[in-house]
Design brief:
single chain; about 160 residues; alpha+beta; 4 strands
Length: about 160
Amino acid sequence: MNSMFNLDVVDRKILRILQERADISHAALAEAVGASPASCWRRIKALDTAGVLGKTVRLVSPQMVGRGLTVFCQVRMKSHDAAARQNFEHFVESHEEVLECCSMSGDWDYLLRVVVADVADYERLLMRGILTHEAVAHSSSHFALKSVKYSTAIPV
C-alpha cells in the first residue's frame, strides 16, 4: 500500500497550479505560491521523486482529432482466474481507443472509457475485439451524449 506524502500548504498550492498549468515557469510558479524559485524547484523535485507528480502531458481535444464519441463499456468476464484477467487487461492496454479501464466491484467486472470517431468505429472495436475476446462473457455499452464535467485535477 502506498503511504501518503506529507503535503504542506505550499506543496498543495504547487500541485493545484501545476494541474491547471503544467507549462508555467518555475519563476512564475514560485511567485504564485510565495516561495523562492530554488525552493519551488526543490519541492517539485521532491514531489516528483516521491511519485506525487506523474508525467507532464498536454491534453488533446477529442473532437478536434476526430474522436468525438465517448462510450462507457461494462464488461463481464467468463472466468475470474488470474490468466483470464491478465489476458483481457493486456488486450485493453493494446487498444489506444480505450483510454481507461477499471476493475470494478458489483455486477460488472470492468468499466472501459472508449473514445472513437463514431458509432461504426465503436461497433468495430466491440464486435471484432471486445465481444470476441475469449475471456468476455457479456458487455453493455453506454454512449455519452455530452460531457457535463471533465477534469484531470485531483483535489489537494
